[in-house]
């Protein structure tokens, strides 16, 4: 779920409640209001989400320190997801895992297929700042696990927003190097895409945003479809 | 009805407080011995490492208080492990209320540790804590250690190996999963806990 300002927080709460009732297994909130310039951010929305939601949720964006993470977790989030700040300072992963446990430290990775090699990108929240992190995706995922990341969300940028299916080839390559839960992101446009990514890339979860926001793919229908096709899900 | 949640440290107590708010029965987070002893229901939650949590309970002088409680007590996640004899995690001696020792999950390529996610949970014996919950209902788990099956096991789940999902002895019950994050099945379990006979 993406949101841009406080005016629509009311909608976020309602959307969270709706997804909980429809059978989503987990929600990820990309807090793009949390700016990297270090100013104080209002995270009271985390408490309001925690009050209505009875499934786990993760907050991504704006977490650059132990104090940021503690604030989000104390307000009721179950996990925190870090991306660019981990690339700037990989020791942050180790510090968060030691302080809060690996189970709540998620590594978000934005990765792009370039001539069959997979490379990490950072600052992808801002098109003007997006740049190659000069690391290969498999190396980065391996290092992050060694440092204590308990889950990896791999966003395949070349597929993101085009709704032509997850990048199962890239996800399979990362799966082979990833011993912690791996969540696929980027490209979901049809129920078959979800089935494919579970079957082919053996991921632990599949993340999608626009097809759920628009209700193009109702979650109960999707879960029934997966279950009918032998992918065991909570219904 | 008064509910005391024992503050054993660690983050993420908020979601448990909110879960009881949703049941219209607010709970109080406390380390006050008198509040805990006087509550109608007591929750022992826990996030983090067993040794830290036991150290905090000891520092708050709550070890014997918890052992002596007569009202229904619910241990959640690490709180379940704290109710047992010991945890293999750093070889910590625990409260010794429910027999058994928490062991590290074996894990495998297809079942990474920590176990994070929704697991089908099977009934092993009748217990009012599981009333009106379908056999095989999914609950949300986040853990690296678990209690093996025993005579006290009420429900089981599997992650490379079977373990106790719910256990109970006398007025003590415990869940390895997080009922506060387990949707309607979790809310039902918390509601059942509030309804347990005293």
Description:
The complex is a heterodimer of chains A (235) and B (198). Chain A is an alpha/beta fold and 235 residues long. Chain A has helices at 9-22, 44-52, 66-74, 84-88, 91-100, 137-146, 168-175, 191-201, 210-213, 219-228, and strands at residues 2-3, 27-31, 57-60, 79-82, 105-114, 117-122, 131-136, 151-156, 182-185, 205-207. Chain A has a single domain (2-228), classed as Aldolase class I (TIM Barrel), CATH 3.20.20. Chain A contains ten helices and ten strands. In chain A, strands 1, 2, 3, 4, 5, 6, 7, 8, 9 and 10 form a ten-stranded mixed β-sheet that branches. In chain A, α1 (9-22) links the parallel β1 and β2. Chain A is globular, with a radius of gyration of 17 Å. Residues 1-7 of chain A have low confidence and may be disordered. Chain B is α/β, with parallel strands linked by helices and 198 residues long. Chain B has a single domain, classed as Rossmann fold (3-Layer(aba) Sandwich), CATH 3.40.50.880. Chain B is built from six helices and 13 strands. Chain B has helices at 14-22, 33-38, 50-59, 63-67, 78-82, 183-195; strands spanning 3-6, 27-30, 41-44, 73-76, 84-87, 92-93, 98-104, 115-123, 137-143, 145-146, 153-159, 161-169, 172-175. A nine-stranded mixed β-sheet of chain B has the order 2-1-3-4-13-12-11-8-9. A four-stranded mixed β-sheet of chain B has the order 6-5-7-10. In chain B, β5 (84-87) and β6 (92-93) form a beta hairpin. The two termini of chain B are 12 Å apart. The model of chain B has no long low-confidence stretch (mean pLDDT 94). The A-B interface holds A 20, 25, 47, 50-52, 54-56, 70, 73-78, 100-104, 150-151, 179-181, 204-205, 232, 234 and B 11-12, 14-15, 18-19, 21-22, 47-49, 109, 112, 114, 116-118, 120, 138, 140, 142-144, 178, 180-184, 186-187.
């Amino acid at each position: 779920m993406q949101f841009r300002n406080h005016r629509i927080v009311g909608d976020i709460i309602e959307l969270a409640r709706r997804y909980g009732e429809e059978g989503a297994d987990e929600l990820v909130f990309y807090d793009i209001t949390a700016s990297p310039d270090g100013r104080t951010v209002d995270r009271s929305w985390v408490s309001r989400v925690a009050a209505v939601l009875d499934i786990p949720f993760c907050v991504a964006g704006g977490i650059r320190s132990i104090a940021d993470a503690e604030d989000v977790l104390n307000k009721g989030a179950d996990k925190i997801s870090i991306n660019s700040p981990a690339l700037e300072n990989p020791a942050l992963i180790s510090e968060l895992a030691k302080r809060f446990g690996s189970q709540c430290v998620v590594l978000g990775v934005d990765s792009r297929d370039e001539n069959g090699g997979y490379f990490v990108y950072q600052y992808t929240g801002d098109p003007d700042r997006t740049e190659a992190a000069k690391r290969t995706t498999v190396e980065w995922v391996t290092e992050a696990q060694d440092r204590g990341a308990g889950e990896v969300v791999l966003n395949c940028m070349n597929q993101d927003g085009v709704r032509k299916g997850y990048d199962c080839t890239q996800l399979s390559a990362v799966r082979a190097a990833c011993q912690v839960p791996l969540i696929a992101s980027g490209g979901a446009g049809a129920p078959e895409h979800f089935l494919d990514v579970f079957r082919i890339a053996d991921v632990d979860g599949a993340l999608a945003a626009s097809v759920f926001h628009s209700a193009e793919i109702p979650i109960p229908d999707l879960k029934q479809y997966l279950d009918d096709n032998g992918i065991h899900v909570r219904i | 009805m008064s509910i005391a949640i024992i503050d054993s440290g660690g983050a993420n107590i908020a979601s448990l407080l909110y879960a009881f708010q949703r049941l219209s029965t607010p709970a109080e987070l406390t380390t006050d011995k008198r509040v805990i002893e006087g509550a109608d229901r007591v929750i022992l939650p826990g996030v983090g490492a067993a040794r830290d949590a036991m150290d905090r309970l000891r520092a708050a002088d709550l070890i014997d208080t918890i052992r002596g409680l007569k009202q229904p007590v619910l241990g959640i996640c690490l709180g379940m492990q704290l109710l047992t004899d010991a945890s293999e995690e750093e070889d910590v001696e625990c409260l010794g209320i429910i027999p058994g020792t928490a062991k590290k999950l074996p894990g495998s390529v297809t079942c990474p540790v920590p176990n994070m996610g929704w697991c089908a949970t099977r009934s092993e014996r009748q217990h009012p804590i599981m009333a009106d919950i379908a056999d095989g209902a999914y609950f949300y788990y986040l853990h690296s250690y678990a209690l093996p099956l025993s005579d006290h096991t009420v429900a089981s789940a599997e992650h490379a190996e079977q373990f106790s999902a719910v256990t109970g002895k006398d007025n003590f019950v415990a869940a390895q999963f997080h009922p506060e994050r387990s949707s309607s099945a979790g809310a039902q379990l918390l509601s059942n806990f509030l309804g347990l006979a005293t």
